[in-house]
Design brief:
By secondary structure, the chain is of the alpha+beta class. It is built from five helices and four strands; from the N terminus they run βααββαβαα.
């Protein structure tokens, strides 16, 4: 069930107008700079390792997740009173780049001395209700079908839909091509 967190009177950052609600539940989209890249699915094991490492350093829970070749969507739940999702996102991105370097993936630094793997910013949305949460979970799970990577949501291997099916939260045939797919975003 969705849990509304308190913002403790903190105002969002003016620069990006980011919501900073402690203990909040957030939907994120992280995108590779090269939209034709398949790095995320090609190196799925490395990406999973990066998530585990980030979670070990700064606790968070993943409510739903889908990883596509060039982007990912997730719902992250922060601990009570903690609003620092930016550090967690930065760690996931940084760890992934470092893992790619370690395995010898050829990466070229840009003029700033950075490896331009990820888009600099990310999309964030604070989940505000049970219906908002459900719409974003559905959006995440339907995304491979939307991008024509799978005929049904269950056909995509890099999705939390498999846990939802195993836990009896959605039927195995949920999210096929015939579904409207107008969820969340």
């Amino acid at each position: 069930m969705f849990r509304e967190a308190s913002s403790h009177g903190k105002s969002p950052m003016v620069q990006y107008r980011r919501d900073k609600t402690g203990g909040g539940t957030y939907f994120f989209t992280l995108v590779l700079k090269d939209r034709c890249s398949k790095l995320l699915t090609r190196y799925i094991t490395l990406l999973r390792r990066c998530f585990r490492r980030a979670k070990k350093n700064n606790e968070f829970r993943i409510k739903a997740l889908v990883i596509l070749p060039d982007h990912l969507h997730m719902i992250m739940i922060l601990p009570e009173g903690d609003s620092d999702y930016s550090t967690r996102i930065r760690q996931i991105k940084t760890y992934f780049v470092k893992e790619l370097i370690l395995i010898g993936e050829e990466l070229i630094k840009n003029q700033r001395g950075e490896y331009p793997i990820w888009q600099r910013r990310f999309w964030e949305h604070r989940i505000r209700s049970d219906s908002d949460l459900q719409a974003h979970v559905d959006y995440i799970h339907f995304n491979p079908v939307k991008h024509r990577l799978a005929k049904q949501a269950v056909d995509w291997p890099y999705s939390s839909i498999h846990k939802y099916i195993a836990d009896g939260m959605v039927p195995k045939n949920w999210g096929g091509e015939g579904v409207n797919g107008d969820f969340g975003e």
